[in-house]
């Protein structure tokens, strides 16, 4: 197996799962950084744009499959396909951000019924996350090559460099008694990083070679306020959520404000076709919260003056 970009967060979880399942991965990445604790496997260091020139090194590993966790866009996907041996199984990771509902959420328009399925409408506007990122492009390239595309919800878990729990955990670390929260109704499908790795294994293990897209998301999704409460409970903390007006929310808590379009997806197809199942959600959340409490950011934000201002507004 070749893992394209397997050193950070999702990639390292995929590599660990492959090893546990008896596979021998080759991890191909830039080599700019190798975080401590990585699995002891063979690495090939090369910038993605140079991969086509290294196709002999790719072929020498004699892979039967490749998993691309970091293509980023169409150019990244094409560079991978030009380097990989023909005929091998392909799995590429994408996101539920390809759906029109995501565009609707960003523009505050109601566009789609939920839960979203693999045949729900896709975005019409591209590069909504910047000029270098477009999952719609990578999907087009990989689908034409016969790949399985895994559309992920918001991934959380150990080694999450986006620190999705940090808006809550930094207030727990800071000894805060209250956290200002908005309407808290936002629904955006999530998925535990270990379950993403298991979805990759399920796609590779399928007797029939599947081509197409699969949503990989948790079976049930808590709205944002409840999600905050679940994080607090998993941390064993005492932190009161205080309802404030959405317009006075601190910047890192704006996701708790009211939204129009939810980005809630369903994974029935993955369960039926691939036999994939997600973990027990409370156990996965507890593991994740504990890891982040034990590994706080080096320079976490200790300025809670925006909280105090919002809480003063609530007290009036």
Strand line-up across the major sheet? 3-2-1-4-5-6-10
Helix content: 25-40%
CATH architecture: 3-Layer(aba) Sandwich
Number of domains: 1
Distance between the ends: 60 Å
Order of helices and strands: EHEEHEHEHHEEHEEHEHEHHH
CATH class category label: Alpha Beta
Into which percentage range does the β-strand content fall? 5-15%
At CATH level 3, the topology is Rossmann fold
**What are the low-pLDDT stretches, counting only 5+ consecutive residues below 50?**
none
Number of helices: 11
The outline comes out as globular
Mean pLDDT across all residues, rounded? 95
CATH superfamily: NAD(P)-binding Rossmann-like Domain
The Rg value, from CA coordinates, equals: 20 Å
- Using DSSP, what is the number of strands? 11
Which class do the helix and strand fractions yield?
Answer: alpha/beta
Which sheet architecture does the biggest sheet show? 7 strands, parallel
């Amino acid at each position: 197996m070749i893992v394209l970009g397997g050193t950070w967060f999702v990639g390292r979880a995929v590599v660990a799962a492959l090893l546990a399942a008896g596979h021998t991965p080759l991890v191909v990445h830039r080599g700019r950084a190798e975080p401590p604790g990585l699995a002891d496997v063979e690495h090939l260091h090369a910038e993605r744009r140079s991969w086509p020139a290294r196709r002999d090194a790719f072929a020498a590993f004699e892979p039967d499959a490749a998993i691309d966790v970091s293509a980023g866009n169409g150019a990244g996907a094409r560079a991978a396909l030009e380097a990989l041996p023909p005929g091998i199984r392909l799995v590429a990771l994408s996101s539920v951000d390809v759906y029109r509902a995501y565009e609707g959420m960003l523009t505050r328009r109601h566009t789609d019924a939920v839960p979203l399925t693999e045949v729900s409408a896709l975005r019409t506007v591209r590069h909504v996350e910047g000029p270098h990122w477009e999952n719609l492009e990578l999907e087009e390239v990989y689908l034409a090559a016969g790949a399985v595309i895994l559309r992920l919800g918001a991934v959380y878990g150990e080694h999450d460099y986006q620190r999705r729990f940090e808006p809550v955990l930094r207030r727990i670390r800071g000894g805060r008694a209250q956290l200002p929260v908005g309407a808290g109704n936002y629904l955006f499908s999530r998925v535990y990083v270990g379950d993403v790795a298991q979805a990759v294994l399920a796609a590779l293990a399928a007797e029939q070679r599947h081509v197409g897209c699969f949503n990989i998301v948790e079976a049930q999704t808590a709205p944002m306020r409840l999600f905050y409460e679940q994080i607090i409970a998993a941390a064993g903390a005492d932190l009161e959520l205080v309802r404030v007006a959405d317009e006075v929310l601190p910047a890192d808590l704006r996701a708790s404000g009211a939204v129009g379009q939810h980005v809630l997806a369903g994974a029935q197809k993955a369960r039926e076709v691939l036999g994939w199942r997600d973990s027990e959600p409370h156990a996965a959340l507890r593991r994740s919260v504990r890891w982040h409490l034990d590994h706080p950011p080096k320079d976490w934000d200790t300025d809670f003056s925006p909280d105090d201002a919002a809480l003063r507004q609530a007290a009036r």
